[in-house]
Design a protein that fits this description.
The longest helix is centred in the N-terminal third of the chain and has 29 residues. Helix 2 runs parallel beside helix 4 and helix 5 packs antiparallel against helix 6. This protein folds into 5 domains: about 220 residues, GHMP Kinase, N-terminal domain (Ribosomal Protein S5, domain 2), CATH 3.30.230; about 80 residues, Arc Repressor Mutant, subunit A (Orthogonal Bundle); about 160 residues, 2-Layer Sandwich (Ribosomal Protein S5, domain 2); about 70 residues, Ribosomal Protein S8, Chain: A, domain 1 (2-Layer Sandwich); about 70 residues, Nucleic acid-binding proteins (OB fold (Dihydrolipoamide Acetyltransferase, E2P)). By secondary structure, it is an alpha+beta fold. The chain is about 30% helix and about 30% strand. Strand 14 and strand 15 form a beta hairpin. The radius of gyration is 35 Å and the shape is elongated. The strands form 6 sheets. An 8-stranded antiparallel sheet has the order 8-7-9-10-21-20-18-19, sandwiched between helices. The chain contains 14 helices and 29 strands.
């Protein structure tokens, strides 16, 4: 007997139906739902601890999205044959949901909270990631966990000139705008996407249409909550408070903090002065008490002092238009860049903006270097990779190197999507491309430095990108009480940390190629969003102008030490001949030349890719393959190699893999009684193809027909070499 749950079904706006079910699965979680569209089903659960851990003054929220291979009828690859750590794709979806949910938890809620979204059934043409935010928010909405939602997420794409909500996998391939949006009923909370040089106004239109779809999904969640019976949100007290201490810190330290903030100093100088002011107050308070401060009081001192720093910085910007490093709201920090810095790399660039620096390399590879994507929903190969590294020394810190975290995966993905839009197609660029950005200094917007350095390094490598790409991170300071706000261009790390928005926009001089926005308030109005996009456009063009002082277009040729790739199309029936029995022929070519050869069947043809570090090796392989694929023609003259000598003649390889018999009578106009001393194995000779046996396919060759016919003697006897 099946358990009956409570289900809310709604139309997403174009006749396609989505259902949200609760009360059937995972009932011990604080909240759980199953979202279904077509055959795609997501199970979302949320659990939050009843109490916060001692000393925790933030929200320990974890969001994990995972796709079960069984959902798509597949068995995982690898040795263990089971789901392991999250793939980069799953990490990216987890981040999208996390960034949408996190701003809407109460600021004083600090209990460990875990959201898990699992793909339990897959529809090949419905992308589950567009439903993950809806599922997570619905699970929170039917729970007793404090949450200022609901919210939802949608994918908005422009396909064949029309905007589509949550398009099918097949239709998405034709999109020139693709964005994931998250929002509340009132405002946009998060966005991330890629575009083929679209305008800012086109972006705004996409956001408006996507937001209307989000409102439909929010209404459905509220109706589901009513059907379930609205739960009272749990009561909690996760923060120690000392309002007298808070007031004293504000009164005694605000002016000093404001003075430091306004001094326009560097990150390290400013940090040292802020810390010294805080430590001086703690020492004073300790002296007054006559004993060391307890952990709670010390923690409150640091917390309230941080709040003073935040208020001073924000008020300074809103009231005076002055920022921590002395810039106005629209100024971009000083920029310098250099290409070709690393002599052995195929392409390299250093891009420095203020106290943020990226050293980026480009490596060109062959087909064998493609990345295998083995996921539950997607299986295939990737030819463009971008990896972003953020070592601890870039911020003057010490921490173990544990490999890339979620932040590194997300930043690298944004830069990859931004640069992907300007790459040449495969006919112009047969290479696998790997870009690696190593952040050497960081004080805000290192992902945008990666985009700029990546474009410079691609041009240095000789990759014919359509246009250079730059990126800029925009910030926001918003006072909800007064409605005053300031949009900041090229934000510092502190402005990201203490501000209300991190809005990254990338693009060429013609339009936007990528974007990513996170906000810390409960939404962003279209008025502010429009202003931020226009200010970002101006900043982006300024950065492009600075980049153009270093290099304006791709180099005419690849570096001398860069590998060369030649592609050939051959008739499909010759693929086996090039590979040879057990791979003998292709392996021998690779051994002799040092080149890497790959063959892929494409329709009626075989696409052969030859990859080598020098032109001579490529030319040798091309010659051999042309020989194998050439159809011998009767009457044609070939240069052959003697392979084997028999008493009745010699076998000559006149095309790669094709031997013909040169009979003893066809070697010369002279008569030879024996083959001894006439020809040698390995000797190069010219021969003519006389005939092909129709039954056996054997080739008949002649050398003598290419030699001058000797004059006859008076006796009309043929010439002989006998005495």
């Amino acid at each position: 007997m099946s358990q009956i749950g409570i289900t809310k079904t709604f139309d997403i706006g174009d006749g396609r139906m989505v259902s949200i079910e609760t009360g059937k699965l995972a009932k011990q979680a604080d909240g759980s739902v199953v979202v279904k569209m077509g055959d795609t089903m997501l199970l979302a659960t949320v659990v939050s601890a009843k109490e916060a851990k001692p000393g925790v003054d933030f929200l320990p929220l974890s969001v994990d999205y995972q796709e079960k291979y069984a959902a798509a009828g597949r068995i995982p690859g690898g040795f263990l044959r089971r789901e392991a750590r999250l793939s980069d794709y799953e990490v990216l979806i987890s981040r999208l949901v996390d960034r949408a949910l996190r701003p809407l938890f109460p600021d004083d809620y600090h209990a460990d909270t875990q959201v898990m979204i699992t793909l339990i059934s897959a529809d090949k043409n419905i992308m589950p990631d567009a439903l993950a935010g809806l599922a997570a928010s619905a699970a929170l909405t039917v729970s007793d966990i404090p949450f200022n939602g609901p919210i939802s997420e949608v994918r908005i794409a422009r396909i064949d000139g029309k905007f589509v909500i949550n398009p099918s996998v097949s239709d998405l391939e034709r999109a020139d705008i693709e964005m994931m949006l998250a929002g509340s009923a009132k405002d946009i909370l998060m966005m991330e996407g890629e575009m083929k040089e679209c305008s800012e106004s086109e972006m705004i239109e996409a956001i408006r249409i996507g937001h209307e779809a989000i409102k439909i999904q929010i209404k459905a969640q509220l109706e589901l909550a009513e059907m379930v019976g609205v739960k009272a949100k749990r009561e909690y007290n996760h923060e120690d408070k000392d309002l007298d201490l808070k007031a004293r810190i504000e009164q005694e330290l605000y002016a000093g903090v404001y003075e430091i903030a306004k001094a326009g100093s560097t990150k390290s100088e400013r940090g040292d002065r802020f810390k010294a002011l805080r430590d001086e107050f703690i020492e004073k308070l300790t002296a007054e008490k006559g004993e060391e401060l307890d952990a709670v009081t010390l923690g409150l001192c640091k917390k309230y002092y941080h709040d003073v720093e935040k208020d001073a910085m924000r008020n300074m910007i809103l009231n005076e238009g002055i920022r921590l490093d002395g810039r106005n709201t629209k100024q971009v920090r000083p920029i310098w860049s250099e290409v070709g810095y690393l002599p052995s790399a195929h392409g390299s660039a250093v891009f420095t903006r203020g106290e943020t620096q990226s050293l980026t390399t480009v490596t060109l590879g062959a087909k064998d270097d493609e990345q295998l994507i083995d996921g539950a929903m997607f299986y295939g190969y990737n030819k463009f990779l971008l990896h972003y590294n953020f070592p601890a020394f870039s911020t003057g810190e010490v921490r173990p190197n544990r490999g890339p975290g979620r932040r590194e995966v997300g930043h690298g993905n944004l830069a990859m999507r931004s640069l992907k839009q300007v790459l040449p197609d495969e006919t112009e660029n047969p290479y696998v491309i790997r870009i690696v950005s190593d952040i050497l200094e960081s004080n805000g917007s290192s992902s945008m430095a990666t985009v700029c350095a990546g474009a410079l390094a691609l041009m240095d490598a000789g990759v014919k990108i359509k246009s250079p790409v730059s990126g800029i991170a925009m910030g926001l300071i918003l006072d909800p009480a007064t409605g005053k706000y300031a949009v900041l261009s090229d934000i510092l790390g502190d402005e990201d940390h203490l501000g209300d928005m991190d809005f990254k926009v990338t693009g060429t001089s013609q339009g936007v190629t990528g974007c990513q926005m996170d906000i810390k308030v409960d939404g962003l109005s279209y008025e502010v969003l429009t202003e931020a996009l226009e200010q970002a456009r101006q900043g982006r063009l300024h950065i492009l102008g600075e980049m153009n002082k270093t290099i304006t277009a791709a180099r005419e040729d690849y570096k001398p030490h860069a590998p060369r790739i030649v592609e050939m199309l051959i008739p499909r029936e010759f693929i086996g001949a090039i590979i040879g029995p057990g791979g003998k022929v292709i392996q021998e070519m690779q051994r002799e030349t040092g080149a890497t050869i790959s063959i892929e069947e494409v329709g009626e043809y075989g696409k052969v890719q030859i990859f080598a570090t020098d032109k001579e090796a490529v030319d040798k392989v091309v010659t051999k393959i042309k020989g194998i694929t050439t159809v011998p023609e009767i009457g044609e003259v070939y240069e052959g190699t003697v392979k084997n000598i028999q008493p009745f003649g010699a076998f000559v390889e006149f095309l790669p893999g094709k031997d013909g018999l040169l009979h003893i009578s066809e070697i010369d106009w002279k008569r030879f009684e024996t083959m001894e001393g006439v020809l040698e194995v390995g000797e190069k000779i010219k021969v003519k193809l006389l005939d092909v046996d129709k039954k056996t396919g054997k080739f008949k060759l002649s050398r003598k027909v290419l030699l001058p016919r000797p004059e006859k003697t008076e006796s009309n006897a043929p010439q002989s070499d006998s005495k």
